[in-house]
Design goal:
This protein is an all-alpha fold and about 150 residues long. About 70% of the residues lie in helices and about 0% in strands. Helix 2 packs antiparallel against helix 3 and helix 4 runs antiparallel to helix 5. The chain is elongated and about 65 Å long.
Length: about 150
């Protein structure tokens, strides 16, 4: 075998080649793990109690935050702050909406007028969060291409 064989750990090993590529920082990788587990636990528990649905929406917010990182020394960008704010509003609106629906069902009455307002507020926050994540991903990809291709 030659020294260039990547299976022997020679000078051109896969680890050495992978260093040249940009990797996701450790913080977002941890958020992906925690968010994925939260979504899974929330979906499974959501069938039996209300808190599971809130846990699932908080996990989706963590996944969105993890995907909005920027390459560089500080991975938490301005768009990440927008994602956090919109995600927190969406999670709160989700909890509030289901609380209003649950309260109306226990009182044997129709949902209050605030339920539709909270629902549309949550939908708006979700759209803002997804747009910020998409913008962050597009900016990260285009900046990465600009640095590698002059």
């Amino acid at each position: 075998m030659t020294d260039d064989d990547s299976t022997t750990g020679g000078p051109q090993s896969a680890a050495a080649i992978a260093v040249d590529r940009a990797r996701m920082p450790l913080g977002p990788r941890r958020l992906i793990l925690i968010g994925s587990l939260s979504v899974l636990a929330g979906v499974l528990a959501g069938r039996y109690y209300f808190g599971g649905l809130v846990l699932a929406s908080a996990g989706i917010t963590l996944l969105a935050l993890a995907l909005s990182y920027q390459a560089g020394t500080s991975w938490f960008s301005r768009l990440s702050w927008l994602v956090v704010a919109a995600g927190a509003l969406w999670t709160t609106a989700t909890a509030g909406y289901w609380w209003l629906i649950d309260a109306a069902s226990k009182a044997s009455s129709g949902p209050s007028e605030n339920a539709s307002l909270v629902f549309y507020l949550g939908i708006g926050a979700l759209v803002v969060m997804l747009a910020a994540v998409l913008t962050a991903v597009i900016l990260r990809v285009t900046r990465g291409r600009q640095t590698t291709h002059p």
